[in-house]
Amino acid sequence: MSAGFAGLVGLAAVEGASPTRWPAAGCTPCCSAGRAASGKRSVAVRVARGLLCAAGPSAGGCGRCGPCQRVDRREHGDLHVLERPAGKTRIPIEDVRAVIDGLGLGSVEGRGRVAVVVEAADLGVEGQNALLKTLEEPHERTWLLLTSRRPERLLETLRSRVERVPVPVLDDAALHGLLAGSGAEASQAALLVGLAQGSAGRLQELAGPDGLADLGLARTLLRGEGDPVGFARSVLDGTEAGDEGIRQARRLRAERLLALALPLAASEARGGRDAAFEAVDRLLDAVRDLDLGLGAEIVLQALHRDIAASA
Predict the structure, then answer these.
(1) In the prediction, which pLDDT does 151 show?
(2) Beta-carbon count within 10 A of 6 CB
(3) How far is C-alpha 29 from the geometric centre of its chain's CA atoms?
(4) What share of the chain is helix, strand, coil (3-state, %, to 5)?
């Protein structure tokens, strides 16, 4: 692996996404695709760094020059990072238009402009159509880098215009290596690695204080411990309202917990715990209820009550 991609554990396979083989003119789109927290964003930023490196286009850049370091700090004037703000369900169209306008301006440092769109499906139909216009009327020396855990959710007209770069999952040995020195006991390390599902970013989240706290809540849920009202409050209390209000913020908080409880329940089901099979079905029902717009507190209370009844 070159110096430009050093430090991206297990991602040597994506080094072939080198900007040196991309045309210098026009708007060149690329999409790094993979699971949530698999390193897609890191890959896209490294590719952006390679495009803006003072030494010229390379795979990931030198990592030492001023432009590379400014990209790493997200302070480079020619780098635009577009992502869904906390508490929102979509990337606002106003943010999309601002980035498109920025790509049309002259390069600040003279090597071109790069936009990284994190989880491009969050653009929605309107945002994706806005990007299509940029691809159809490209500016010189501009690059568009998308990441997506669900590329099939992108418009076909957008997917057909991007070069897809798969971001692989890590094997268990690599993930265990990342936990070395963390102090995690063997049984806990094995559980965290299993729940991470090949994602270094997910493993880092799970092993942190917030992740371990959520793991405790997920276990409480799957065993039906406590009471439904108290459980829902323990999950939702302290949730801060985003731009779309407290109701939406609580929904997103509940979805994060369910996203952890589902693989935990599946793991317990594979281990022969009969109640876990029914818990998986109940969890999937709860996810659908949240999608339908039911309040997070009501959904969590009903979920806890149903799981406790069959635990």
Answers:
(1) 82
(2) 12
(3) 19
(4) 55, 10, 35
Given a contact cutoff of 8 angstroms between Cβ atoms, the answer to whether 8 and 46 are in contact is: yes
Whether the predicted pLDDT of 55 surpasses 70: yes
Provide the pLDDT for residue 161. Answer: 81
At 301, the pLDDT band (50, 70, 90 cuts) reads very high
- Please report the sign of the dihedral spanned by the C-alpha atoms of residue 283, residue 284, residue 287, residue 292: negative
Instruction: Provide CB contacts within 8 A for 81, sequence distance 6+.
Output: 45, 74, 115, 116, 118
pLDDT tens digit string along 4-14? 544 555 555 55
Per DSSP, the three-state class of 71 is helix
Q: Which residues are CB-neighbours of 249 under 8 A, at least 6 positions away?
A: 87, 239, 240, 241, 242
What is the end-to-end Cα distance of the chain in Å, rounded? 49
Which of 95-98's residues contact partners 24+ apart within 8 Å by CB, and which partners?
96/123, 96/126, 96/127, 96/130, 96/131, 97/130
Please count the other Cβ atoms lying within 10 Å of the Cβ belonging to residue 302.
Answer: 17
259-294: burial string, b at 16+ Cβ within 10 Å, e else: ebbbbbbbebbeeeeeebebbbebbeebbebbeeee
The pLDDT score that the predictor gives to residue 37 is 55
